[in-house]
Amino acid sequence: MSKIERYNYEEAYNESAKMREKIEGGAADYNEAEKLVEKERAGEISGTNNEIKDNHHVQADRILNSEKVPFSREIYLEDGTPEPDHLDQQRQQKIIKYFKEKEGCQNTIEWKEFFNKIDFSLLREIFNEVALSYEVPKEKVNFIGPEGILSHEGAYTNSVYMQEYNLIQLGNPNYTNDHKYLLWADEEKRGDLVCKLNETFGSIDIFRLKQLVHEQVHAVSKNIGRGFVEKNSKSGGGYFLYKQSGFWRVSDRRDEFKSPVYSEGYDIFPLLNEAVVEKLAREIVLKYLESSNWPKVEVAIYKNTLNHHPEKLGGYADQVSLIDSIIKKISSKSNVAEEDIWNFFKKGLFEGEKFEDPDKIKLFKETFGSEFLKQLAYLQHPMFTVSEYQLGEFKEEFNL
Ligand SMILES: [Zn+2]
Q1: Which sequence spans correspond to the domains of the chain?
Q2: Taking a C-beta distance cutoff of 8 angstroms, is the pair 150, 99 a contact?
């Protein structure tokens, strides 16, 4: 197994020193300083690379960073100008059409039955309330109703929020939990799983609710997409050149996120993002169960598991326990209440926190040392097999 790739700290330090020099020398902001450093380097190294593309990125980043717009979903063209709304809708409709043709319907009978039991307007209200506490007004909350949800019988997918098309795709609960072995399990084993879900979640419907809420949290997070590239003209499938969802940022450029804090990367904070999303989803599920007329016995079972055996709730249990440890440690070191630290993370989802504010960096540095954010940024999405190893090593290194 590969170890976590180590950053070149000396290089990162030199980079940071150069940037400081530019800012002290009158550069307006971080981006301008970066541009100056890049130009300087281009002079040193012969044969500059793709100047036009670099300009596009710098220009686009400047627009994206100009202010924190309280809007949970923003889509831009490649040059950073806002994409006309109808393009986003066209993309969504094309995928829905393709999906229906392929699967025969938009949702499975089980999910449709589940949607009938769910009070979507209550769920929406709860999401609006949470978002408002982080200054996102309700008309800007990207809550997705049943019309934007797809599901199918297939055992080959987990649930996912598809940022490119603003759609949620739900998996089949009979397969998703412990799917590594259940994928090929016989009827009896699947039956066991349903029993297990009833025991831990209270009912399979609560398990479904948590899946739905988890993906909704991704949807209402700060989502930015820039430069959609269609890869399949039949389905309309494709990707963004740059995308951000909550803390997670991905770019087509391997050196997009140059920063003295988290060094170089093109896919950063995916694991932190899932941890915060799942922890918040668990809270929202409880809020919904308690504010609706859900059977009290089932609610009690879910609440008991949440409070006493959260590891049994599966799906990102290790990641939630990681964020819990991080919160505890920072709190005890800084004397800030755990609730306030947790609030910082929740707010980060809605604002698209980038860890560029020196005060925030300090908070992590003082508790865990200067390498913590870099390593955290680099922890990969738990879907990939090396992550368990990475996460274990990370926990060991920072005593979490
Ligand atoms: Zn997720």
Answers
A1: 1-49, 85-224+267-397
A2: yes
